[in-house]
## 1
Amino acid sequence: MPSADLFLLVIFALCGLTFGSAANVLITRIPMWLDQQHEIASDAAPGPRGHRSQCPNCLTSLRATMLIPILSYVWLGGRCHFCQARIHWRYPAIEALASAWFIVCLLVYPDNPTQAGVWAFWGLALLTMAWIDGASYWLPDVLTLPFLVLGLVVSLLGLLTTTPTDSFIGALAGWSVLMGVGWIYRLRTQRVGFGGGDAKLLAGLGAWFGWANLPWILFFAALTGAAFGIMRAAHKGQSLRAQEPLPFGPFLAIGGLLICLHEWRFFGSQ
């Protein structure tokens, strides 16, 4: 690999670590903002607030040296410096996954760092939304709507193989399909099925990949979701009906990732 390419590889790896750390902040704080809104609506005593990163156990503000991606986790031995509580494994995992994904994107588009960067942030956004939904059953508009708009914009700029028309139709179809299915499910069962966040996420994926890929995204999402539900039921020794509903966002993200890899022809450039 030429030195310039190696330099870009290092830059992308470091950017992945940095933005992975930022994704951890969003994963931690966005559900907290939701809880605070519920507290305000119910007149409950508000929980702890603050702008600086802090230990979730002892609430001590963290020093800058304790926020270095992955290295701080290793240096601290996976424990808080102040109270010795275990640091959740999610923090280094997200940072490592983000860095690895940024590197993969550059390897797919070695001669086009702009396009590599676009797909790097696409994957990071998808990972962030999937993790938040998996943990809190919530896909916030503050993430799904920019993801949707960005898909339409990069399509207009010619950075996708999807045409702007297909992108727009994909966004509209993705939102309509899940909203329609969710409405029918609620009428028949009196239970909430798909939420509005799921519909907006699928609309975003439709904007990025076009309407023709939506059936495949839904197929892979349903397949992986069903497999996970069956394994969880078997592990707990319960029937599927007795299980709590699964968040659909992580499985939509898996469907989108598989389509992305297919578009790349399994790490071959388009």
Note: Residues 63 and 165 are 49 Å apart (CA to CA).
## 2
Amino acid sequence: MLVAIDFGISNTDLAILDKEKVSFYSASSQSAEINNDTIKDIFKKYNIDISCVEIIGVTGGKSSDVDDYLEDITIVKINEIEAIGLGAKKLYGIDDSSTLVVSAGTGTACVHVQGNNFNHLGGIAVGGGMLEGLGSLLFNNSHGLEINEFAQKGSRAELDLLIGDVVNKIGNLSPDITAVNFGQARHSTADTMENTSAALCNMIGEVIGTVAYLNALLIGSDKVCFIGRTSYLTEIIRGIDQRLELAGIEGKYNDNREYGNVIGVLESIKNKP
């Protein structure tokens, strides 16, 4: 049995490979402090028989603080950029072509994948954590899925200032492209929870999408492969895709992408002797 763990800021993800079957689990992260007792608690929570475990792989958070062994089991510490790259390669079947992978979770990271070379291009502090933080301040609601549901019922056009609101035409830009996020908010009486959620999700999506397409252009890639839970929020995806389309970049969203990092850890330890 192989066990892979990704200690994220918001969630701790687990992947178990047992007799060629992979099982995934996830729970809210409890503490930034990580040690061998943390791993033992995870094993207890998911009824993992430690005597059946051959190797443990960890990434994320302060996973470098754990020991090199849990009893007599080797613990392999995987660099998070490598985990992102390997996970995306497995999920998307990435070949040797130059590809951008965006890990959209609590924050956002951009990784250039080419063959088995993984280069961290940079990241931003905008992501699901920002959505939940602002949701807590604005609506007393820090649940990203619920905020996304509010957004589906609202209209960002009530609060955003769009290109079509201010000019007749700018190049080939659609009149529905945002000119100013929340640009109408100070004059609007339609600042409902639903409309505010729609504008907020769109703004986060636009920022991620803009960073993604600029990095894709930088490395000469015509597609962006997404991993991470934030890339499941439909109203954020809408904002991402609108920005990618400006540059003719395709966004790809395969199943199980929320487990991208832990899949990468599993791929890494599968190849360990």
Note: The chain has eight helices and 13 strands.
## 3
Amino acid sequence: MKESELVSKLQDFGLSQVAADVYLAMLKIGPAKASQICKFACTNRVKGYRILDSLKKAGFVSSTFSNPAIFSANSLQESLQNVINMKKSEEERLEKLMIYVAKNYATSEFKIKQTDSPQFSIISGRYNIYMYIEKLIKETKEELYVITPIGDLNIMYYTPIPEAIRDAQRNGIKIKLVTDMIRDEDIGIIDKMEIDDFRIAKLPSKGRIVCSQSETLVSGYTDVSSGMNSDEDSALVTNSDEFVSNMKTLSMQLWKAGKKQYSLKERNSEV
């Protein structure tokens, strides 16, 4: 794996690009003082100390109690396992909190006032967008269009979305994917996601459209270089009948214009 690709994967685990660069530098030089690390990683001391502190909190780095402190990078596997363990602990804490809040505050005073007017909302943050896409897939009753660049799919693969797609397909839901795959090897990511029905087409933009029978999510330019934790990524979500109808019409047009690709299941059945 190229170092640039590893940096991108580390960003999916919550590191900034600079923090990922410093961590990889520490793996190369071994235990060292902060000043040595900053010099090797080509960053100033003030910023370097802040990054080292964030790496310690994230479970990527350990340090001694000596003065000056010696910093050591934890192994790649140990570091990533630390992130997973912390996320699991946080998930368990939030689940307990959710049960408590739902039990103690589920009164009419705090219930959402229902309205028949179309709802428009903005979702900020790539992770939050992916969680909403997962929700749309789970709630779809008939078919769902997913229009997005191949780079976005490469990041989606590391979310619960592929599992939601597989469950939907097993329940007879049609997931229709249109992407702009340009290399033969890109088909591998779609094989991994086990999407049964997909086509290749020239997309009108680098954004994404996810459209069900009753709701649509639309994003503008999708910069995949920032990985999973991009706070700059945002999406419009609406249940407006007119908006949903227009987006579904566009999705159907892209689907019809796209070149059909044979899924892994179809290719295996021909062997």
Note: The domain at 120-261 is CATH 3.30.870.10 (Endonuclease; Chain A).
## 4
Amino acid sequence: MLTVDLKQKTIIITGASSGIGATLAQKAGQRGAKVVLAARTESKLDVLAKTMSDSGSKALAVVTDITDPSQCRDLVRQTVETFGGVDILILNAGVSMWAAFEEIEDVSFFKDLMDVNYMGAVYCVQSALPHLKKNRGLIAQMSTAQALMGFPHHAGYAASKHALQGFLTSLEIEMQESVRFLHIYLGWIRDTNLRRNAFSLQGQPMGEQKRSHNSESIGLEVCTDAILEAIAVGKRKIYLPAKLGFIPFLNAVYPSFLQRRVSKAVQTQT
């Protein structure tokens, strides 16, 4: 199995202004990587870049709306001009939803889900791919259980994640190992803004929610340590928590059982 030393590797992280992206960026910088921070919120990026630079890490903040292909091209251009290339692209930016489909009156926000979760990733990959091929680099996608099966209250989100899954697994075959891939399937992760920023029934961010994560949720530190370890040792897939790895088998063999379990799990979080 190929091992990867992050020291002096150039990593682009989308959705880097908070949560998983920001924590990954800081930890990668501590391991000696040159980190490019991409997100829409300039103020948050600047604070994170300064924090990393003050601690001795190399960081470049590039304000980027990944739904705009020209901004994705500019992100890669600035990365190459500053650090000389691209070794790792981490597709972390994403937006979710939490609403029963039949109760939604205006489904136009489904397009936003596709634009961010799918087309945004496509634009980033298209821009970075020549540089990744040159360095036999890595594309890491921050995926979810919703990419592996349908989920109630997540119809549009699951559709966008299925689309990204299909794109990247197809591209993986096309690349014939000239570019490596890491598929990261996540369950409930604490201390992120995914639920807060998710589209609600009215197509607006849900905001703060009074709920507690279940006992199987994973902390941000544990999650990001596992991701960096997977990159370092050259894994192709990881599941956090590990039991998500049973979803493809159960969905093929015992779909009704799996659907009941998933429905119950979602109900406890509603």
Note: The first strand starts at residue 10 and ends at 14.
